[in-house]
Write a structure and sequence with these properties.
Two copies of one chain form a homodimer. With about 300 residues, chain A is an alpha/beta fold. The first copy, chain A, has one domain: 3-Layer(aba) Sandwich (Rossmann fold). Chain A has helices spanning about 10-20, 30-40, 90-100, 120-135, 150-165, 190, 200-210, 245-260, 285-300, and strands spanning about 50-55, 60-65, 70-80, 105-110, 145-150, 170-175, 235-240, 265-270. An eight-stranded mixed beta sheet of chain A has the order 1-2-4-3-5-6-7-8, sandwiched between helices. The radius of gyration of chain A is 18 Å and the shape is globular. β8 of chain A pairs antiparallel with β8 of chain B, so a sheet runs across the interface.
Chain lengths: ~300, ~300
């Protein structure tokens, strides 16, 4: 091969790693938000997806619909970004393709971010958005609740909040690379540190300080859902990559939910990195993970 | 309802629990083997299954084939029973229905049991049977390897043995209620003790003493595969019930295999007990678990 062949994009996860390495995470919350919108939305939404903004009881949201999807069933989605970044924009390709795989409408939620809006602002937004959706005449059993990373944390917390309020919860949960332990006690924070290109303990400490500053107790199960009482939780799919410092946040969550008699499926995907389905446009494992998530959701949302 | 209504068989797992409670595990290895053959084979093999005994290089085996199954693909199966009980007979309904779900032939192996034949006798039988099967012209990639409980332990050990010998391993692993830690360090041995009708620590200690007596080291990864190096292991489905003292043997295995870049799917089934797919004839969750196992196997065996 002639010169220049090394600059050709590699296939698969190595190409995603290269893309991320070329756009390292900056210092500063505003700069980080811009960067996550850029790396999350580096490949655009598919042409055949229709979308429109919606006010979810004071919280910004966005509907999306793929051809053939059933609009009376809804995948409600909370984006990741450590409660301090991420947006409807950064996760648009992820949410819309998840809806295609699940063959249902999606509702992505733009909840308030820390540090400007620390805990429990996101919880209040999640509850408001959930009640807005129910108010549209969508039965709880017709709703799947999904999220990645901090968005998965928020999804778990919403189910706890709904149960505490005596309100019916979603038909199922889909959690990608969940961040469940803000005490940062997972063993893979150390063992996967060199392998994970995105998430390292000092960064998580920054996020936790911003979202749940002292004197908030990070062992509070509403802040660290790993420690929650999972009784009555709906069937849950957890997907995580083997190259994640947060691997143990997922495996411990599966063990805890399963012990509480929740129907749990945990998938560990070799070589995949944090929230890899974001890059489904160029990553076969991202598309496959969404297809599996779609199958799971369709098994439980009737 | 008239008198006697309380004696009518309950549905589902409660009926299985009642059946087991009516046939408690006796003292004595011979008596235990008779009892496991009885409770495992309490419901017969389906009428449409054909089967025949086979000598697998000196190890007793049994072929089975469901209508429409592909005879050139084989699910090789190791029964459970703590390495001290269990047989082709006790697990015939399980193995044959797993083959139906996987749409392939099965080969069930009647390996030698402890205490008469302690470690590594079962490993030698497993290797001999594997090599017999390969000698029948079946490619390694056309073989799925499955087992429940101690049989799952043996399946994991066989993959380690094959890797050490430089031989190609199976296309995938299916492990139901695996017993992976003969040091008995799992937390659920305590937390699930009252919920589990079958497996309790004193019994496991008896089994471990019989199979791996001192001075054998139960931290040896060939005896406790939880501690194995899983690099290069094939895609693995682990199924476990929430009412099992061995729940943590499964969840820790999933975490360890996933960290080693194995494609792992862990399913935790609410309220299910140890090796519940045995009773698929009368247990919907048993049939569903086998159907999921069959789907998984078909994804990887080509």
């Amino acid at each position: 091969m002639g010169n220049g062949s090394r600059t050709v994009a590699k296939d698969g996860i190595d190409a995603i790693r290269a893309m991320l390495a070329a756009k390292p995470r900056p210092v500063g919350w505003a700069e980080r938000r811009v960067r996550l919108d850029e790396v999350g939305a580096v490949w655009p939404v598919a042409d055949d997806i229709s979308g429109e903004p919606v006010d979810c009881g004071g919280v910004p949201g966005e509907w999306s619909l793929a051809p053939g999807a059933e609009p009376s069933r809804v995948l409600m989605f909370f984006h990741g970004g450590g409660y301090c970044a991420g947006s409807i924009v950064s996760h648009r390709r992820l949410a819309t393709e998840a809806g295609r795989a699940a063959r249902m409408r999606t509702l992505a939620i733009g909840y308030h971010l820390a540090p400007e809006h620390p805990y429990p602002a996101a919880h209040e937004d999640a509850l408001a958005a959930w009640r807005f959706l129910r108010g549209q005449g969508i039965a709880a059993g017709a709703i799947a609740l999904g999220g990645d990373s901090a968005g998965a944390n928020l999804a778990l917390a919403l189910v706890s909040r709904l149960r505490a309020a005596g309100e019916e919860g979603p038909a199922c949960l889909w959690l990608a690379s969940p961040w469940t332990d803000l005490t940062l006690s997972g063993s893979t924070l150390t063992t996967k540190d060199a392998d994970d290109p995105l998430i390292h303990k000092p960064y998580l400490e920054e996020l936790a300080d911003a979202y749940a500053p002292a004197p908030l107790d990070r062992t509070d199960p509403l802040i660290s859902p790993l420690f929650a009482d999972f009784s009555g939780f709906p069937p849950t799919l957890i997907q995580v990559g083997s190259a994640e410092t947060l691997l143990a946040d997922a495996t411990r969550l599966a063990a805890a939910m399963g012990a509480a008699e929740v129907a749990v499926t945990l998938e560990i995907w070799p070589r995949m990195i944090h929230a890899w389905p974001l890059w489904n446009a160029r990553l076969e494992e991202g598309r496959k993970a969404l297809e599996r998530a779609g199958e799971f959701v369709r098994d439980w949302v009737r």
